[in-house]
Amino acid sequence: MNIFRFYPLFLLLLLSSCNLFSADEEKEVHKIYPSATNVDEHSYANISKINTVHLSLELDVNFKNKSIYGVARHQMHNTGVDTAIFDIKGLDIQKVTLGKKDFEINTDFVIGKEDSILGAPLSVKIQDTTKLINIYYKTTELSDAIDWLDPNMTQGKKHPFLYTQGQAILTRTWIPTQDTPSNRITYSADVTVPKELMPLMSAENPVAKNDSGSYHFEMKQAIPVYLIALTVGNFEYRRLGKDCGVYAEPELIRQAAWEFNDLRKMIVAAESIYGKYQWGQYDVVMLPYSFPFGGMENPRLTFANPTLIAGDRSLVSVIAHELAHSWSGNLVTNASWDDFWLNEGFTVYFEQRIMEKLYGKDVSDMLAIIEFQELVAEIAEMNKSEYPNDSFLKIDLAGRNPDDEMTTIPYVKGAFFLKTLEELAGRETFDLFMKFYFKKFQFKTVTTEEFIAFLDAHLLKPNKLKFNTNEWIYERGIPKNCVRVESERLNNAEKMAKDLVAGKDIFTIRKKNKKVKLKREDLTTQEWMAFIRALPRDLPNEKMELVDKKLKFKTWSNSEVATEWYILGIESNYKDIQAPLDRFLNKVGRRKYLLPLYKSLAKNPQDLLWAQEVYLRARPNYHAISKSTVDEILGYKSIIKE
Ligand code: BES
Ligand code: ZN
Questions:
Q1: Could you say which of 116, 152, 277, 322 would form a disulfide bridge with 302 (CB–CB 3.0 to 4.6 Å)?
Q2: Where do the domains of the chain lie?
């Protein structure tokens, strides 16, 4: 069953065959693209010999000590070895036993050398017949997956809150596991929490609190361990359709239910494109603002950032994205983090298809263009950086943190790769291919090379199509044949920016032949973003003041538009944005906003000083994932030394 079993042999063959070439031919070798991926370089687990098939968790969530006391009972598929290796980081391992619960015998274990990114291997001594391994442990303050929040960081301000973030390699910081996406397991959990709170997992969930504080969870479909997730809070549930709904604190539940009103329609749209939703229930849970992502596709229960609640349903594409992961990512999973584009590129493509189906091509085209602009800018940056090859779709992350690949490359270049293929093959043919791909690889993991072979065999060859797949995947930048998307609405928004610079009155528009004042509601999020992006970076402050006075961007609850406005403000040295930007950075912990904002601030020594001061206050409330990246941008280690 294990796909890695043959790789060492294969690699050896590949390497030794290289030596047979003469110097001339050796040059040719560089053009040969890799035909097999290496083993997952981000896990110590020996899954080719012994791997978890089911995990039973016993978790006691202790808010006073900010620790989870856990037992992880692993049911193994053992090929007959004397050692099982798990991944751990920031965990306090108390004992390891073998055998059935209550009939357990202690066994020896060794914790290997700690790596700052990967953590350490936990090697457990077993017998060749061992099938049950029980690890008793405690999480610590170094358990980076977990965000413990004091009541004042929640909506209700009365109860504490907790959530975990496993992707990419943080599950090992709250559960000892074989933490690689290339192994799939089922899981169950018994979770105890303070009685006034409710736990929720990426599993079958309760819809109301009980009096005992103890809850049982089951995930009966096999998933990679990065999708095991837990959140604990004062939740209420609101049904939004026969198989979907939303959880939030009572203070937010009404707004959340209103914002995600189209959830059921999204599922219908997604199913009409790529086949049945396979996970039974689809719910969304609203986390606090510190959540480092817009959304996280935990199966059956998407974790969402409250910034998605813009009050006008304008940011729901993130929900379409997380729902799309129920096919790309959760059903068909990247085999290693080097293949991450198979998760995200496919998901962005599918997200745009769902948006097109529900809200029209105009809307999905605008989404695509806004992202394409970010892609172009990021590739330019990358080309100047230490890692220009990060613009390959398949990247080499050996020795690096997989969080480094959260760039527009896997997301947007990945999506445009598929859009270009769609244009070449025609939508109907392409959709049949995609449906077949999801069917063929459901509940499995895929490497980039397996995908390429599948693409050749089932789309390109049978339809006699030629495509520069290798250039897209193993070369830098954007290939020339990339599809072009045009949007008249975005062009008009950009023209509006030019008119403003030219001194024209853009704040009065014609509607049904009447002159009326331009309002925020007149343009979509993407149009406003395009408008702001098209403004020159040396825009005089009077012009910014004028826009601010007329449109009040800085008091806007739309975090996408606000972020664009703040960046323009930083780059054009418009000090009026400082107070609202300070508030924003102290409230929101979403990486997508923090990174560009702090990066822009870091470009100018004076702004950098200001940003460092803001960050000192904001940092304690960010999740570890956001902290580690912002620390680097602002040189945090050196500021605390001073
Ligand atoms: N799965 C990702 C989040 C993620 C990626 C977490 C890698 C950890 C490591 C999620 O689906 C995502 O892509 N979120 C985006 C949303 C978006 C592109 C619509 C986000 O949070 O910005
Ligand atoms: Zn995603």
A1: 322
A2: 3-234, 330-474
Q: What is the pLDDT of residues 491-512, one digit of tens each?
A: 999 999 999 999 999 999 999 9
Please list the residues that pair with 516 across neighbouring strands: 509
Whether the predicted pLDDT of 143 surpasses 70: yes
Q: Does domain 3-234 have CATH number 2.40.40.10?
A: no
Per residue in 350-374, pLDDT (tens digit) is: 999 999 999 999 999 999 999 999 9
Q: How do residues 603-636 score in pLDDT, each as one tens digit?
A: 999 999 999 999 999 999 999 999 999 999 999 9
Partners of 200 in beta bridges: 231
- d(CA 299, ligand 2 centre) in Å: 13
Q: Can you tell me the distance from the alpha carbon of 279 to that of 326, in angstroms, rounded to the nearest whole number?
A: 8
CATH code of domain 330-474? 1.10.390.10
**330-474 matches 3-234 in CATH topology:** no
Nearest atom within ligand 1 for CA of residue 318 = 19
Q: Give the number of the atom of ligand 1 that is nearest the alpha carbon of residue 590.
A: 21
Clarify whether 322 is annotated catalytic: yes
Q: 387 an active-site residue?
A: no
pTM over 0.85: yes
Angstrom distances, CA of residue 469 to CA of 344, 376, 516: 17, 20, 51
| Cα 490 to middle of ligand 2, angstroms | 25
Find out whether the beta carbon of 611 lies less than 6 Å from any atom of ligand 1. no
Question: Is the C-beta atom of 564 inside 6 A of ligand 1?
Answer: no
Q: With CA atoms as reference, report the closest residue to 256 among 233, 234, 286, 282.
A: 286
Separation of 317 CA from ligand 2 center, angstroms? 11
